[in-house]
Amino acid sequence: MRAKFVMSEVGIGLRRNLTMTFAVVITVAISLSLLGVGLLANSQVRVMKDYWYDKIEVSIFLCGSLSEGSSCAKGVITQEQKIGIQRDLQALPVVQEVFYESQSEAFKRFQERFEGSAIAQNVTPDQLPESFRVKLKDPTKFAVIESAFAGRPGVDIVQDQQAILEKFFRLLGVLRNGALAIGAASVLTAALLISNTLRLAAFNRRRETGVMKLVGASSFSIQLPFLLEGVFAALFGWVFSVGVLAGFKAVVDSRVAPLLTFTNYFTWQDVWVASAWLLLTGLVVSSIASVITLRKYLKV
């Protein structure tokens, strides 16, 4: 009977402040959706790091006819120098695998990468250098390769792909942090709106709460319907935000992934984990906002 009474009071409160309740639900939904996008952005950065760091290689470009480095002063690399470099690479304990790429192989890969672009039509095989692509057991050990081969006769450039990726991931990190910051600010806005809505509800029902106090109702019994109003608004907003995240994932899978095939993307499991965090965030924020407001404006 008590539970039925509490739920009826919650229903009455929601109907009396229908416009404000709708505004709270929409605000919570948008806030949680923005925070959820930030969480998925964080998952995407993690997935991309796992994907690309597993493919990181060190490229040792050899002296060709167009090389201008000081180590290429004697011209194109000789076969003896090439054999010596490969042998020394394979002898290093930090090296996992060594791949040799000829000019024709480099040209073929270049054409595949830039297929359909104007630059692909203006490059010939002799303009691309031979190279050794080295996969390290630990991608952070680039300095070992650089110190051993940079400036060596026959070697033009020693390039670490991790340095290139780090700049890219720093940019992604800034975008991710920005999305999380916007989501957090939106959640704070939703908390303030919940607080204002409950304050208005407490003021409109001050006579009822006064009567309940006179008949001996406890503070918790009087405050519980107001608290549940905030929680229900958060739950409705959360349901909407889960739909937004699911739609976002569907768009990524159907539209983005087929076009940008160079990496992996966050999974449905990441969506459900993010949704769980949003539910927890919504309940905690709405509960804290409700308790603080009720203690201040509903003194019984």
TrEMBL record:
Any one of the GO BP annotations: cell division
Spans traversing the lipid bilayer: 21-41, 179-203, 224-251, 271-294
Taxonomic superkingdom: Bacteria
Residue ranges of domain ABC3 transporter permease C-terminal in the record: 182-299
Residue stretches making up the FtsX extracellular domain: 56-158
Location within or outside the cell: Cell membrane
Positions in coiled-coil regions: none
N-terminal signal peptide: none
Keywords: Cell cycle, Cell division, Cell membrane, Membrane, Transmembrane, Transmembrane helix
Membrane topology category: Multi-pass membrane protein
Keyword Cell cycle recorded: yes
Gene Ontology cellular-component terms listed: plasma membrane
Oligomer and partners: Forms a membrane-associated complex with FtsE.
Function: Part of the ABC transporter FtsEX involved in cellular division.
PANTHER family for the chain: CELL DIVISION PROTEIN FTSX
Family: Belongs to the ABC-4 integral membrane protein family. FtsX subfamily.
Name of the protein in question: Cell division protein FtsX
